[in-house]
């Protein structure tokens, strides 16, 4: 007679692996339909029954199958978020804000980065369509035609930044570039600067065009004629900022201040000036745009135009949710305003060589 192996004791992990809504229903003493409606947060469920269901779910650490839930409810509760690049700190901060708001409201997000590559972008959109996203926030600071072709014909709600097509289910976040850049130019002008350079972003982007236009108009409002030779096209990267500053250093006359189209460019400018032996702001003042977190801890802390990622995230989520949940009420709400404001820190001061500058140094 052979010994039988001892029966393996069931663990909570074993139960969890086999857990489904039938088991939840049995343990909570409710119907399967009640469990399904509770998980999908249907408001008509009896509160006492819903509490019993959630108590069992919490006790057993049950994770609902969201794909199966989507098949039952007809909704994925999933929003897509498309950004240009993940290496620029502006975008991770935007992603974090968008995700926080989405989770608080019972949604999930699917994030993709295009890296400015049309082929990669097409793959990103296909993946979002396969996952049945209910809407997409396109935070690439420029219209991408393939996005419209693939998403619009499927009537997926879209949110663009700066500019977007005038069609149903599309909202646009309008950034007030002029206000913040005007404050930056006025700040420098009040300090006495008249030779102000500008490093733009890639001019194929609408946002770069808008920031340059805001700079030119603000200079004229202050009675300063922009020097075309000191308007340099950058690429919104650290390396691009350093290259742009090198071009300015090669000119006969060095500007007394530089305004940059984004903070990454401004940090690249700071790095190049440091390597050259020039001091900020004693020799030259520098202003960025975005107010990413690292701007505050640069040496010196960077004066910059703040464009709140939280404001963008809130507006983008509100627009998508409105298109999905209350489309009839939301038809007229096409545009959302995104404010900008100058944050003055230590990278700006009086122009070099002025009496005020010399008095300050002494």
Question: Would you spell out the secondary-structure blueprint of this structure?
Answer:
Blueprint: H1 12-17, H2 21-28, H3 32-39, H4 47-60, H5 66-73, E1 78-83, H6 90-104, E2 108-113, H7 118-130, E3 135-139, H8 145-152, E4 158-161, E5 170-175, H9 177-191, E6 196-200, H10 206-221, E7 231-233, H11 238-249, E8 257-260, H12 263-276, E9 285-290, E10 303-307, H13 309-325, H14 327-330, E11 335-338, E12 340-343, H15 355-361
Parallel strand pairs: 1-2, 1-3, 3-4, 4-5, 5-11, 6-7, 6-8, 8-9, 9-10
Antiparallel strand pairs: 10-12
Task: Explain the overall architecture.
The protein has 362 residues and is of the alpha/beta class. The protein folds into three domains: 44 residues, no CATH class; 129 residues, 3-Layer(aba) Sandwich (Rossmann fold), CATH 3.40.50.2300; 150 residues, Rossmann fold, CATH 3.40.50.2300. 46% of the residues lie in helices and 16% in strands. It contains 15 helices and twelve strands. The strands form two sheets. The chain has a six-stranded parallel β-sheet with strand order 2-1-3-4-5-11, sandwiched between helices. Strand 1, helix 6 and strand 2 form a beta-alpha-beta unit. Helix 2 packs across helix 4 and helix 11 crosses helix 12. The radius of gyration is 27 Å and the shape is elongated. About 4% of the residues have low confidence.
């Amino acid at each position: 007679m052979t010994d039988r192996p001892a029966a393996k004791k069931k663990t909570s992990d074993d139960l969890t692996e086999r857990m489904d809504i039938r088991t939840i229903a049995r343990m909570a003493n409710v119907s399967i339909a009640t469990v399904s409606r509770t998980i999908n947060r249907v408001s008509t469920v009896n509160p006492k029954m819903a509490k019993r269901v959630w108590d069992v779910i919490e006790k057993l650490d049950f994770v609902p199958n969201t794909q199966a839930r989507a098949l039952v409810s007809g909704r994925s509760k999933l929003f897509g978020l498309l950004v240009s690049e993940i290496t620029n700190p502006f975008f991770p901060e935007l992603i974090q804000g968008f995700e926080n708001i989405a989770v608080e409201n019972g949604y999930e997000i699917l994030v993709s980065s295009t890296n400015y590559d049309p082929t990669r972008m097409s793959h990103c959109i296909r993946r979002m369509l396969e996952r049945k996203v209910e809407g997409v926030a396109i935070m690439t600071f420029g219209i991408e035609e393939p996005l419209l072709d693939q998403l619009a014909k499927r009537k997926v709600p879209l949110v663009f930044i700066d500019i977007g097509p005038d069609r149903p289910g599309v909202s646009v976040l309008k950034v007030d570039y002029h206000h913040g850049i005007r404050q930056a130019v006025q700040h420098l002008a009040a300090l006495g600067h008249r030779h102000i350079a500008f490093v733009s972003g890639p001019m194929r982007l609408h946002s770069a065009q808008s920031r340059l236009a805001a700079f030119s108009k603000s200079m004229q409002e202050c009675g300063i004629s922009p020097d075309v030779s000191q308007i340099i096209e950058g690429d919104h990267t650290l390396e691009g900022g350093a290259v742009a500053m090198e071009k300015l250093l090669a000119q006969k006359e060095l500007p007394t201040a530089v305004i940059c189209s984004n903070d990454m460019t401004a940090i690249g400018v700071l790095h190049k000036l440091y390597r050259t032996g020039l001091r900020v702001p004693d020799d030259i003042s520098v202003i960025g745009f975005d107010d990413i977190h690292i701007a505050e801890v640069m040496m010196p802390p960077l004066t910059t135009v703040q464009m709140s990622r939280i404001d963008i995230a809130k507006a983008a989520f509100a627009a998508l949710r409105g298109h999905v949940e209350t489309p009839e009420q939301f038809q007229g709400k096409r545009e959302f305003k995104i404010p900008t404001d100058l944050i003055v820190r230590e990278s700006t001061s009086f122009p070099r060589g002025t009496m005020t500058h010399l008095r300050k140094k002494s």
